[in-house]
Amino acid sequence: MMVPDSRAELEISTVNVSKFHANRVFVPDILWKTQLELKGGHAEIEIPETIFPAASLKYKISAVFYSADNEKTQKDTLVEFRYDPLNLKVEMDGDSVRFSCFYKGLRKEVQAEITAYDIEENELEEKKVMLPYALPLNQLCAEYYAEAEGMEYESLILKDHPALLDIRAWKNNDSIFIRTQNSRKLAFTWYLYAGTRLMDLGYTKNLDTAFISHGKNDYTLSVQYLWGGKPEVLFRTIRVQKNRLNIRVDQPSLVYPGKESNVDIFVTDYNGNPVPGVDLTCYGITRKFGSTLTEIPVFQEKYKAPKEYNSFRKASVYDDDSMDNTFSETLDYPYFNRLFGLDTLTYYRFLYPSDSVFVSSTPSADGITQVAPFIIRNGVIQPVKVLYIDEIPRYFNWVNQLRPYSFAVSEGRHHFRLCWPIRKFLLKV
Known about the structure:
The protein folds into 4 domains: 6-81, no CATH class; 90-160; 165-328, no CATH class; 361-428. The strands form 9 sheets. The protein has a 4-stranded antiparallel sheet with strand order 2-1-3-4, with no helix packed on it. Strands 5, 6, 7 and 10 form a 4-stranded antiparallel sheet that branches. It has helices at residues 320-323, 333-340, 346-351; strands at 6-20, 30-38, 55-66, 72-81, 86-93, 96-103, 106-107, 110-117, 123-131, 133-136, 143-147, 154-157, 165-171, 175-182, 188-194, 197-204, 208-212, 219-227, 230-238, 246-250, 264-268, 370-371, 375-377, 380-382, 386-389, 392-396, 407-408, 415-419, 424-428. The protein is mainly β. It is flat, with a radius of gyration of 34 Å. It contains 3 helices and 29 strands. The longest helix is centred in the last third of the chain and has 8 residues, at 333-340.
């Protein structure tokens, strides 16, 4: 609704600087301030380009509005400023990722190379395209990357953005209702439990359904999906709070000073039926007092949550928190070899040779013969301190090694001497 005879104050302030484009740059806290009259409740104003320093930064626009009776309303918004006149931009747009190039704020066509990576930095997709360009969102992707000649690269990390997947689930006396809001159109798997019993499941991008509720069981909905290459889980508990009351207030959207208006208040139970004899307290204040609603305690009925039997997460073995829950034990090779036939794999024949020596060879692509001798004890590679080949020292453990542990040799038989901290090994091959 239009508010007549109002005015506004605008203030632009610096939030943070991402890059400086000169050796010495002064960035003020307040970049610009102005006042304007809102004729007819609307006004347009152009921000001068000269207020911005030689820096790429993020700034905040604070707009304070005053009505005729001096009622104050404030709105803030964040804006990113790129000092470079020509720059790339990668942004989310619903279920798509958009790649654009801008010259002084206007879109420009330019050829660019875009790449998608998963969470392990493996390349999922790479192509050369003409910007602007849009890609369908890939849930396996963790980062999108755009690069063009003469411009700084731009990237988009999905974990820094919300998945925008939400589940609304509720229950009345005889039915269960489930509805999703999925702006990204993410594929997800859902499971519906009655207590600990699985009632139904599915795989979809949109869920808008209803089920017949049997008995007084509480229900649990589990939704599993990928976002930014990582698995995510949403849980919703569905139950009827028979002691909770629903309140609906019907009132005019605008009440000016001196006007009298009727306010209708409806109180219903969980089935939507009117509730007689309700102790109701109603009050009204203007926005200038900044009052918050009083929290009223809700005495919910006790319920039994479903028991979670298995829960897994991916973590690095070098993470301190993960190491606390890591169990390490030597492999019982004879036992597991009988169960799984481990000796059919080259890896286990290398760690647990049936003879005292294990030799494996593959053709050399460049014609240069190379050898890499190891000492194995109880399935564990032991550190070689010094390696001699034909009595010539070729490897020292305490010296920084810039080359891989592999050594070129000529044709014919050779003599190897491997020095271990507690003994020496001699080998002729």
